[in-house]
Each structure stands twice: as C-alpha cells, then as structure tokens.
Design brief:
221 residues, alpha/beta, 9 helices, single chain, six-stranded parallel β-sheet, two-stranded antiparallel ribbon
Length: 221
C-alpha cells in the first residue's frame, strides 16, 4: 500500500515495496575545501551544511530496509570518458584530471572522489560511478533499477541545479515517480536552488514532487 507523503504540488504516493533512495554526488570533490567545487571558487560550506539531513534520510531508508544508491561523478584516470569540452569549460585554476589538495580532480580512486565519511555506503548499498551529470548515461542504472522492480525514486544530494535535476529529469522521462527531499539537496547559489525547486513542481509536478525530510519521517514513522 502506498504511503502518502505531504509534498508539493500534492501528496507523493511512496510505494514502499518499489522505492529506492538515490544520494547524488556527496563526494569530497564537491563538498570539501581543496576539491573541484572549491577550485571553481564556490562556497562549499553551503553543501557541507546538508550532510546531517542527508545522513538522517539515509538512516530512515536503512531502518526500513529499503534500497540506498550512491552516485559519484567520476572519470577514468586516462580521461577517455571525459569530453575535452568538459575539461576546458569553467576557466578554473585547476581542471578535471589535474592534481589538487585531494588528488586528481574527479578521477576514479582519488581521495577527493570518495563519498564523505559520514555518508559512506555500507554493505549491500549500490555505488554508481557516472561520467556525466545525469545518473543514467553510461552507468547501466536504468536496467538495474528495472531489474529490481523499482518504480519510485527519492532523491537527495548535490548540486540541485546540475546533477540532481538532470538525474531527476532523466528518471522522469524513464517513467520513475520522483520525490526530491528539499533540505537534503543544495546549490552553491541560493537562487539556483529556489529556481530549481519551482521548475520541478511547476505545472502539476512536471518533473516530480518536493518535500522536506520531516514529512517523510512523520509519514513513514
């Protein structure tokens, strides 16, 4: 039986038997000083601030025994899966593949590419390494989710206007019912978060639903 989660633009029908949580890119390169986000001149403290809420959300799913999936934006060491245009873009002092305070930026196996310690995956949870913004391109995630019978996705992570919204839109196009936990996601820019949320819930939830963690906690119990 579905669980009605108070949400915008109307209650989200969470199906407990077919739901997964996707925590997007809560990796050191985006959240900690010395990482890729910091190299672009962003205030990483904004992203760091949501860690306790994301931890609470993960804990809620673990308590229920529901599937938890983590993603990381990552490239092969030879950067063969990273378009040159992506490397050039941004005009940052340090670019993808170059060495920063936590190793080579956005490169598989480097310290900065790891999920922050307090949100680290545990046994049985899935980790998806994605070379793009969206979680489906070149990852096999769609086939994995459909093989598991997953129809509903709860999303969290960073940044809301790039990897989170891209992944949510891609999931929407593939028929998944998506709920974004609004206090478990963030942007380096407050106005971007506000705009992204309004885009998601516009026109009767054209991309999906949005709700705070407290709404899930109260409804799920």
């Amino acid at each position: 039986m579905d669980i009605a989660i108070p949400a915008r633009p109307y209650p989200y029908p969470l199906d407990p038997d077919h739901t997964a949580l996707v925590v997007i890119d809560m990796q050191r390169d985006f959240i900690e000083r010395g990482g890729f986000g910091d190299s672009l001149g962003n205030d990483v403290a904004r992203l760091e601030a949501i860690i306790p809420v994301v931890s609470g959300l993960i804990g809620l799913f673990r308590k229920q025994g529901w599937l938890v999936i983590h993603t990381r934006e990552v490239h092969k060491p030879d950067l063969s899966d990273c378009p040159p245009s992506k490397i050039r873009r941004g005009n940052a002092p340090l670019k993808i593949g170059e060495t920063g305070a936590m190793g080579r930026l956005l490169v598989r196996g480097e310290p900065g590419n790891q999920i922050v310690d307090s949100l680290a995956p545990i046994a049985g949870e899935i980790v998806i390494d994605k070379p793009g913004k969206g979680m489906f391109w070149a990852t096999g995630l769609e086939e994995m989710l459909k093989g598991l019978g997953t129809t509903h996705l709860v999303l969290a992570g960073v940044t809301i206007e790039v990897c989170v919204q891209t992944s949510m839109r891609e999931a929407n196009d593939r028929g998944f019912e998506c709920l974004l936990v609004e206090d478990a996601t963030e942007s380096y820019f407050s106005e971007f978060k506000a705009a992204a949320i309004e885009m998601i819930v516009a026109q009767g939830g054209i991309v999906g639903w949005v709700a705070p963690l407290a709404a899930l906690e109260k409804a799920i119990g």
